[in-house]
Amino acid sequence: MTKIDDMALFVHVVKAGGLAAAGRKLGLSPASMTARINQIEKRYGTRLLTRNTRSISLTDAGERFYSGCLRVIEEVENTENMIQDSQNTLRGHLRISATSDFGRQYVAPALAEFTSNHPNISPHLMLSDGLINIIDQGVDIAFRFGNLSDSNLISRPLVQNRRVLCASPDYIKHNGSPRHPEDLLHHRCLILERSGQPLNDWHFEVNNKRQSIKVEPHLSCSDGEVIRRWAVQGFGIAFKSLIDIKRDLSNNKLVLLLDEYVRGLSHSDTEVVGVQAIYASRQYMPMQVNVFLTFFEQWLNKEIINP
Fold it and tell me: How confident is the model at residue 84 (pLDDT cuts 50, 70, 90)?
């Protein structure tokens, strides 16, 4: 077996969370898997995995080796794609993560158009309003709102955006319009949940001072698209990103509320909460990922100008 084969096997073991699970995927017995890992550790003269009967964990040396294996394998795949790319045909996997509402409205149709033009791309779109680890989940690009908190990742601003409060004209007709953030305590509020926690601390700026209002959930959901649909149907007031409700505003299905006060869902939110593309590395970005990112940025800007 070559060193590349051993690196690929090591990556399979780490991602599968154990020797037996990785062996089942690779068609190798537990004994064979154990022997291969022992050979790798003997070659480098250090323990890479801490193993017990139920799980494995990486040692410090294993963490460094795993990171290096990912880079080497990615470079090998990129080189193979370049060699096969004699007619400028993009190929390979493309794993994308996006928030639910933004993903359905913008990423999904753009990805469908992109793959129709590049049929050798194998796409996968993950939609979630929760926090994810893009490296652990093998995500090439994640589209998120707000500022990047993890300095180990790269962010690329795509379009301007901000947080807004909104409700349907029908809701306003029957319940009135809040005139001050504290009025929200007497309204039906639609709350997004993240990791089981309600995002019901809504942030405003009143007389140049930040103010947080903890609203009572009338309805709550972990899916941002559902929150928007509830707002359109007149069930209450929602905190959304402007880009998510742009079409509903144009069609008079939603109206903005308290716009001069609204800031966001966290203390770090400001007047601008942009759409960011987040990825692990510029240096090792596969060609299909880079081409899609450029395509999507152009597609998104055209869509916003001409919805």
Answer: low
* Residue 207 resides in a domain: yes
Given its phi and psi angles, is residue 208 left (phi above 0), alpha (psi -120 to 50 degrees) or beta?
A: left
Q: Rounded to an integer, what distance in angstroms lies between the CA atom of residue 262 and that of residue 304? A: 22
Q: What is the DSSP letter of 215?
A: P
- The CA distance from 32 to 21, in Å, is 13
Number of domains forming the structure of the chain = 3
Q: Residue 172, exposed/middle/buried by CB under 10 A (0-12, 13-18, 19+)?
A: middle
Contacts of 133 (CB under 8 A, 6+ apart): none
- State yes or no: pLDDT of 125 exceeds 80: yes
Whether residue 114 is found in the same domain as residue 184? no
CATH number of domain containing 122: 3.40.190.10
Q: Is 206 left (phi over 0), alpha (psi -120 to 50) or beta?
A: beta
Contacts of 45 (CB under 8 A, 6+ apart): none
Tell me the per-residue pLDDT of 25-63, one tens digit each, with 9 for 90 and over. 889 998 999 999 999 999 999 999 998 767 889 999 999
With bands split at pLDDT 50, 70 and 90, how would you rate the model's confidence at 151?
low
